[in-house]
């Protein structure tokens, strides 16, 4: 375990191991954490703001971009290879599938659009109607949804 930590910090733990000082692993781990946290925050925003389907679509888009960018040596390193025809076709097929899915708006079981937000109503206690609202009540003294969120 001590040798692993020494190598992680960029020092060779033993004279016969020379790969640890080539590139500091902690720097690459920090870059990974930065992108991972950014990706997960974006996914959470997509789920909160749009729908979980859009989070899946965002993941497909990230996969397509990773596939395209991985063929360049500056990003993929020395093991980078040009995408084959089959790989290009799969990326194109995934993009067309996303496009076809989005031709029509996404609706719930009542036929209402799932996009956007309803500002009024306490979303923590959805017991009456849509978004916790009783259709016969007035919204004048109701708290807005933004009053309950931390984002």
How would you describe the overall organization of this protein?
By secondary structure, the protein is mainly alpha-helical. Helix content is 47%, strand content 0%. Helix 2 (25-49) packs antiparallel against helix 3 and helix 3 runs antiparallel to helix 5. It is elongated.
Catalogue the unreliable spans: 122-126
Q: Give the SSE string.
A: HHHHH
How large, in whole angstroms, is the Cα Rg?
Answer: 24 Å
N/C terminus separation? 39 Å
The 3D shape can be described as elongated
Report the strand count.
0
The biggest sheet, with number of strands, parallel, antiparallel or mixed sense and barrel status, is: none
Layout of helices and strands:
Blueprint: H1 2-8, H2 25-49, H3 52-69, H4 73-76, H5 85-101
Helix pairs in contact: 2-3, 3-5
List keywords for this structure.
47% helix, elongated, 151 residues, single chain
Quick description:
By secondary structure, the protein is mainly α. It has helices spanning 2-8, 25-49, 52-69, 73-76, 85-101. Helix 2 packs antiparallel against helix 3.
